[in-house]
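Internal tracking record. Fields below are filled automatically when a chain is submitted to the structure queue. Please do not edit lines marked as system-generated. If the sequence contains nonstandard residues, flag them in the REMARKS field before resubmitting.
Queue: standard
Priority: normal
Entity type: single polypeptide chain
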Amino acid sequence: MSNPTQAGEELADYLATLNRAGVSHDARAKVMERLDPVVEEVTGSLREQYGSVSLPLPAKQRHNAELAQRLLLETADCYKALTLDWTGKRFHLFGGNPLPRYLQRILLALQSVLEVCYETHESCPHGLWVDMHQTYNYALRNGLKEVVPEGSKHMLSLEQIYLATLLLALADPYHFPQSELLWAKDIIARYANLAQLYPTNESTKGKAGLFLVEVNTDTPPLPLAREPHPMNPRWDLLLTTTDLAKHLALLSSHLRGQEDIEKLGLPEAARDPAYATMLRRLKLNWGASLQRMAQRRRHQNGREFEVSFGLKSVHSLISPPTASDAIVYGSGSHDAPPVPLRCNTVNDSMGGLALRHSGQGVQIRVGDVVGMRQGNCTWSIGLVRWFRIPAAGEVYFGVQLLAPQADAVQLRRLDNGRQWPGLLLLPNPVTRQAPMLLSLPSAFGPDISAEVRTVRGKQTIKVDKRLESTPSVDVYRFQMEPPAPPTARS
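SYSTEM-GENERATED OUTPUT FOLLOWS
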């Protein structure tokens, strides 16, 4: 498609006019039957425009993402109008029941809107969740929840679509790098049938992994792990994910045991070190096991921090490169020095901070290394755990703090001689911090020895267990190796 933006705008305007026009049910149904594949093609072309661009999106790509949402919402509104027209008729003399197809199209369109929000880290449109809940509730009350619409290209029942949408929301998608969001959706497609929905008037005794779905509210499911919540037995639903969380725990165990991923029924992506971390996070989220260990403290007037994102930038700020540096693989020393951003705290806790940045110039990814400092203090090191973009030019993000300071070093692998930049987080007896190495992805691995060059001289370390892997950094434990004893003179 040569100009998806123009096509999307014209199509969205047409759908908006159709939604507000006094059109008969049959005429509207025929129009939507022809437009469905067009909407799918245009939204797919729009996604190609914004899907691979660094976040926050530039103005043009942001417009395309918003246009995709508008198209999908107008499509959902068209099918809501068809549903209301059909249910308002007293007699249906000819043809079958089109309601399953109408309801499926509504659920799929709303699900796609949410996925655009998750991919771009934008806020969810108001009213979307209540539409999602009430569409499924109508199917449930009318015995249609397990129906797969005849002739649909999507061989999914209404309950399967709804369950997948709930599970993706409960996966905490704003904490996922974009690549891992695709993995999470694949896990849902494979194992969502292990989750169950049932009325709140059934006994919950002995059940874990419970979430409350409030049908008449504009909110995603709420965990019931520890805090009781009032329920409306007439309308509300309970989602239990116990069997799903147990199965993910079993898969994680098999992955740690180096079992064949084909026998486990997992995709090729499961060979990535980050996949096991993603599985563990899904297990905790869907098992309703993630609880805050420390209370947040909100800041009325936030403290200002200098912030820099990315291993390369943070390394350069801590230890500016010199002409003698010879980083053959990884960063060069000819780039312009990074310019830190000024951000203000929103709240903090024992383990990290939430901050806000207003203005342009920020590029951020979940899993990025973060350097932070106040005034002329040393640079603290952390990782981006989540971010949201509530409006153009504004970013809220959460940082997990790893260490109050770090050594920016150059490392040379002893097995192949390749050199890489890295950050050494040295042990801290006060915070009980273990020694950690932050390096570029796949630069090192367990049981690899490396020579570390710092301003204090050279030291040999042995890389130990990989603690975490993200698209932009690997985190390892390491051990300092004792210096070789001097050789005796002959």
